[in-house]
Amino acid sequence: MGTVELPLVVGVDGSASSLLAVDWAVAEAVRHGVPLRLVHASLWERYEGTMPPFSPGRGPSGQDLDEQIIAAAAERARLADPDVKVTTDVLPEDTVSALLREGRTAFALVTGHRGRGELSGLLLGSTGLAVASRAECPVIVVRGERSNLEGTHRRVALGVGDAGDSSAAVAFAFREAGLRGGRLEAVHAWRCPARELPDFPAYAGEVADPHRHEAERYLDGVLRAPALEYPDIAVRRGIREGAARDALLDAALTADLLVVGARRRHGSLGMQLGPVNHAVLHHAACPVAVVPQPA
Predict the structure, then answer these.
(1) pTM score, two decimals?
(2) Cα(281)–Cα(10) distance, rounded to whole angstroms?
(3) How far is CA 78 from CA 24, 30, 36, 38, 86, in A?
């Protein structure tokens, strides 16, 4: 028996952000050789109050509008690459519930960074955040500058966190870098506890050195096995003292994708997205992939 290809699922709602997500997802589906599944949740009208940019002034009925939204997204995908297998569905659910259910049988979920009807000042829409926090598969929030969205940097950035939280994200990032034929930058931030710093600043560097060396050893250990599996990928190790959020946001400036991990805690609802993940989802200059780490 042959294996079933899990699709790359994209949530579409007619917003400009979701259409950019479709564009990005087409290229991702081509890289992975997987089908593209476009889904639209028809119960959006309970929560949203605006019309998609292509709708007429008076607007069609709700069912007609749903069909227009999904048809326009499918046509956009086919124009981007006619060879990609595209399927569509209108689901009678709210957006978060629909995408979480779809994620159970998806290679990954893709969303825009802001949905229809959300305030223009929002950095990340409520749907993207809820799905990234709770999905069982990787979630890619498509955001950032044009050069980052178009893959011109040929570089994947990877945030390597605490022990046990990163192996799934590391594997995902290596695969993405390999398919892009580009480089991987693995970033790990460290801090020297303030209580260990001497009163005289001249010696601070000497005290901090053991922490830097430990961070280097830890990162080398995390990357050793996947680097052997992907020997053709050029890997740059970024060890940085300071806040992890700053290190990752800097790395995202010249990356096509930023990959971070999130751990699913036993007995809790969904994953635990800490302040670092929240920061990159709201502010990164490139698409962000949140990869769940099994408990």
Answers:
(1) 0.86
(2) 17
(3) 13, 12, 10, 12, 8
